[in-house]
Amino acid sequence: MSQLSLDKSKIRFVLLEGIHRNAVDVLNSNGYTNIDYLRTALDEKTLIEKIRNAHFVGIRSRTEINKRVLQAADKLIAIGCFCIGTNQVDLRAAMLKGIPVFNAPYSNTRSVAELVLAEAILLLRGIPEKNALVHRGGWSKSAEGSFETRGKTLGIVGYGNIGSQLSVLAEALGMYVIYHDVITKMPMGNARQLGTLDDLLAQADVVTLHVPETASTEGMMGAERFARMKRDSIFINAARGSCVDIDALAAALESKHLGGASIDVFPKEPKTNDEEFLSPLRRFDNVILTPHIGGSTLEAQANIGLEVAEKFIRYSDTGATLSAVNFPEVEVPLLAGKHRLLHIHKNIPGVLSAINRIFAEHGFNVSAQSLMTNDAVGYLVMDVDADYSTVALHQLQEIDGTISARVLY
């Protein structure tokens, strides 16, 4: 195999927010040693300075990579969100600059599902209130308001990776599972899909959200929908803070329409562990409040570190963009003795024709070529004879609409 166009020791990674150390280990074992590892998030000004010369940056949920940050990061070629969500990154701005964004959509599903199920059990038993009372010196030894999980109906809103795994765990405990999703999903076990969210709210003893942050899910649980839930039912949100009107939830708890709630994500969250968390939900003993830790188990963080680091390596070594959340997905097998060219361009008519015309006019032999596009950009991977790569790269860079072009190896 030909040598990489850039020595791996010169490829700079910046990993923020205490990403699991196995990400560093797997990068090191693949020859990437230029790694700046920080345990904290950074404010915008500091972040701009820190990643100005970085090729890869890894973040979790606290770091925001917006258009201003991207404009200053001239060497950046990929971003990794070491978590499920990617709303902390301006995905379109990154795409238009030719920067794919990778995440870990599957690695912490078990952790979130286990937490939600545990919270459902605790809330059905009334444990949060009893625990708070005992801490204050009280003693309420009674079965009043305390229920088994078996035989209760769990309503899952969003039947994706987490929702479907939760479905299996809940059914194993003897719960009836119903779910609602915007598209038809194959049920796990005996779960049943309902046609409308309102139908689910009316039937479920426990309602749990597992939806992405989109325009359609913003504020989806407000006063009207809480009113449609069964009296004394339980509400759980470990999805996105923007999906719930917290004041409306507080009102439903204050009126005792709901029997309890558990919230792991909030519309506004502290930026650091030293900042005070403010919420109208703090005054309720029958509410479990957790600091956005649904996927924060050692097992999940280890899996996430490995998953995203490996995606970095595949992109850096081969140009593969499979599973990128904002970018055309391309993967081409490696060919020995060839040089690989990567060309990212605006998705406008004539680019591929111009590329093929250049190769034809110069007699360049293309051993492999793969192009994928989305609404805004195209991503072309080409393997050519080693003797042609330098000239070909120069020609590619001159094509109208080119965002970036480089020799990978």
How would the blueprint of this fold be written?
Elements: E1 13-15, H1 21-29, E2 35-37, H2 44-50, E3 56-59, H3 67-72, E4 78-81, H4 91-96, E5 101-102, H5 109-124, H6 127-135, E6 153-157, H7 161-172, E7 176-180, E8 192-193, H8 197-203, E9 206-209, H9 223-228, E10 233-237, H10 246-254, E11 258-263, E12 287-289, H11 298-318, E13 338-346, H12 351-362, E14 366-373, E15 377-385, H13 389-397, E16 402-407
Parallel strand pairs: 1-2, 1-3, 3-4, 4-5, 6-7, 6-9, 7-8, 9-10, 10-11, 11-12
Antiparallel strand pairs: 13-15, 13-16, 14-15
Helix pairs in contact: 1-11, 5-7
Overview of the structural elements:
It is a single chain. With 409 residues, the protein is of the alpha/beta class. It has 3 domains: 1-108 and 298-327, NAD(P)-binding Rossmann-like Domain (Rossmann fold), CATH 3.40.50; 109-289, NAD(P)-binding Rossmann-like Domain (Rossmann fold, 3-Layer(aba) Sandwich); 330-409, ACT domain (Alpha-Beta Plaits, 2-Layer Sandwich), CATH 3.30.70. Helices cover 32% and strands 19% of the residues. The chain contains 13 helices and 16 strands. It has helices spanning 21-29, 44-50, 67-72, 91-96, 109-124, 127-135, 161-172, 197-203, 223-228, 246-254, 298-318, 351-362, 389-397, and strands at residues 13-15, 35-37, 56-59, 78-81, 101-102, 153-157, 176-180, 192-193, 206-209, 233-237, 258-263, 287-289, 338-346, 366-373, 377-385, 402-407. It has a 7-stranded parallel beta sheet with strand order 8-7-6-9-10-11-12, sandwiched between helices. Strand 10 (233-237), helix 10 (246-254) and strand 11 (258-263) form a beta-alpha-beta unit. Helix 1 (21-29) runs parallel beside helix 11 (298-318) and helix 5 (109-124) packs across helix 7 (161-172). The protein is elongated and about 85 Å long. The termini are close together. The mean pLDDT is 94.
